[in-house]
Amino acid sequence: MTMFLRSAAAAGAVLMSVASFDAQAASKTLEYTVLRDGKPIGTHAYTIDTNGADTQVQVSTDIQVKVLFITAYKFKHNSQEVWSNGRLVSLKSTTDDDGTDKALTAKAEDGKITLDSMVKGQDRRQFAAAAAIPASLWNPAIVTQTAIVNTLDGKLMKVKVANVGSEQVDAGGAKVTAHHYKISGELTRDLWFDDAGRLVRVSFPDKTSTEIVYALN
Q1: Staple 171 to which of 68, 71, 85, 216, CB 3.0 to 4.6 Å?
Q2: DSSP assigned state of 5
Q3: 151-175 confidence digits (pLDDT tens)
């Protein structure tokens, strides 16, 4: 319980910072180098446009893992999110997960979020609470959640979040102080947010337990 309260308090501080940051900047782009075992394998980016209480977010990921100049794994993802007053209004995504096509359309309606996905040509409809947050990671409110929406297929993933504390990390060519959170459960991610609410670093193991890092440029 103590850990949760500390996490909630720190998250609240970051959320307040984010509100202030967004009020000052109508548009910002965050670009990351994706590293596998310390070696670059691709890029990840967010473009966040804010107009009063409304926010639009473009997310793009392009990853290729090569072995002896042959592509052993590829992942390409693009999504568009629309938010209003801190809640998700809609989300559309397309993904090429190493040759498996996935698509998701999410829409807030009738007091809930309707999630229509297509994976391997098969349709599926799911539902989430109106306050649910997608697992696109940029939003610091994710650290207050116990379930988050998979942005590839709409699955609701149960998670736990631990507040690890403040740390110094490399971001944008400099050392910055960031709040470290560890997500576990049906999604495993380590996230670092700076005092302005920017996601400055992401870390997680891939299917071979090799570390993947999104490092802010």
Answers
A1: 216
A2: H
A3: 999 999 999 999 999 999 999 889 9
